[in-house]
Amino acid sequence: MFRPKWLLSALLLGVFIPIIVVSQIVGPPESNTDESSNTAAFDADEIGKVIETTMECHENPALAVSVVKDGKILMSRGFGTFGLDNPKKVESTSVFGVASLTKLFSATLLIKMLYEKTNLTVDSPVRLLLGKSFNMSDPLRTAETTFTDLLAHKVGIPDYNSLRFDPKFTRDTLLERLGLLQTNQQFRVKYYYSNIMYGLVSYITEVIGGKAWEKLVDEHLYQPLGMKSSTFASVANFEQKDMVVPYADVLGKLERVNPEFSRRWAQLSGSGSVMSSADDMARWMNFHLFDGKDAQGNEVVKAKQIAEIYKGRFFVGPETGKETRLSKYPVTSTDEIYAFGIRRGFYRGYNRLVHTGSTMGYRAYMALLPEPKIGVFIVMTGKDDAYVYRHPLHMYLMDRALGVQSWLNSSTLCTYPEPWENRSARSNRTLNPDVKLKYDIKQYEGSYYNKIFGSISVSYNKTFQALVITYGWAQWRLYVTSNAPSETFYGQGLGANHVFYINPISFLVGGENNNTIQGIKATGMFSAIPPIFSKKKDVNKGTPIFSNSALFFPMAILVCLIYKYDLHALLY
């Protein structure tokens, strides 16, 4: 059969031209922020109105979202204002703290540095890098703890988060205290989410990279990805014009978080110091969805290193408020496996990578669907207890990006988890300053010591007419909440940490008549293994050195022997 030459050429071109074109698309397409080019199923203006409406039924002064699909930015917008007393509108370039979304930055950077600058792998023991300076609470953990254990929260040591109030506890000094951190759980058995271990990850990265963690993130991630608005709470200027003011709930009222708190609390860096914008986080999501490439298809992190991050490492179970099952809900949403700095699960049958972030004043959420290459980022100020806004909003945005009819709407985004489950009732605590102390004020005052946490002090404040407890750079006013069986207090934050409370705090009594304060049980500082602070003896009040009669006779005999030895040496 006769076929013209031009027809054969056209057929060949029809086969090979698409192959050539497709082969050139190796990374996410150049960011497209023209929302008018979005697919019909994703109406950014309509979705924006839904968010504006639902913000009114939640207590969030500021909010920002970005949604990406196939490398394009479907939506990147800000909502609300910079503060309760600042009418400036939030934009897609406005900067928020993303809290524990930082952990994926930490994991990504450590994996990159580990494989490019050492001959170690994620399964290598940490001691091979840090040597004898690395000591944990028992020989097994010291010898066997790997980088995987740190990144996937497998060490089994609870999070001693309140150590961050101690100015002596930093990335540089963390190793000195690491061996003191006790646990009552088995290694690689109990999941203990740990900000402290991610602080250690930051330090390890600095050892490998030879620079401060913040500089390494900037050089290896921020700059290559064009994340120009992003910074770190540990070094940020909170007065700069694009910085959204953090607000936290204090006894039922939204109050501004002191920048000094945000800066000091972020000093471990790798656990929660990243600050970013909706635009920059869209770039971050596309970087992960396209195997470590930037918008132009340039390799920033090797694909095999990115794949290492996503491997499931540890079953951690469901988190309250962040899971839906078909038995109760129209769809299934899970995240029960921890990888490196991110959790694995499913949404509508799609593989899902997800992590949340919560710190004083900021609430964040990021989820990725790798197969359809969809990413959703949400950040807000104010409160969002039990994820009642972030979680359903992210599922609503996922549905819209998938092009399916969402099971959520303006009404259910306000009532979630109702009508499917009852919303947990929350009652604001009422503090009564008139409840009298059980003992004389002088009994409480003094310095108390714990081997892990160090010293805390208790003093009477005449202005408040109340006891004040001081630990490091933080202070709390104590309110009596119970007198029986032991006297228990609620610690209301003061000064820089006024948004951070500790509860409960109990004074321990003993002595001959069981009426002498001898210590503090600080459950509110560390509930997993409540620390006991023993009251220090006041030598200025003439407390005998050998006040413990059990030690008197052995010490007396020792003194006599020393005296006899010295006398013998003198005479002979």
UniProtKB/TrEMBL annotation:
Keyword line: Signal
Occurrences of domain Beta-lactamase-related (ranges): 49-384
First and last residue of the signal peptide: 1-23
Gene3D superfamilies for the chain: DD-peptidase/beta-lactamase superfamily (3.40.710.10)
Coiled coil stretches, renumbered: none
Pfam families, A to Z: Beta-lactamase
Record-linked InterPro entries: AmpC-like, Beta-lactam-related, Beta-lactam/transpept-like
Domain of life from the UniProt record: Eukaryota
Protein's UniProt name: Beta-lactamase-related domain-containing protein
Species of origin: Lymnaea stagnalis
Lineage: Eukaryota, Metazoa, Spiralia, Lophotrochozoa, Mollusca
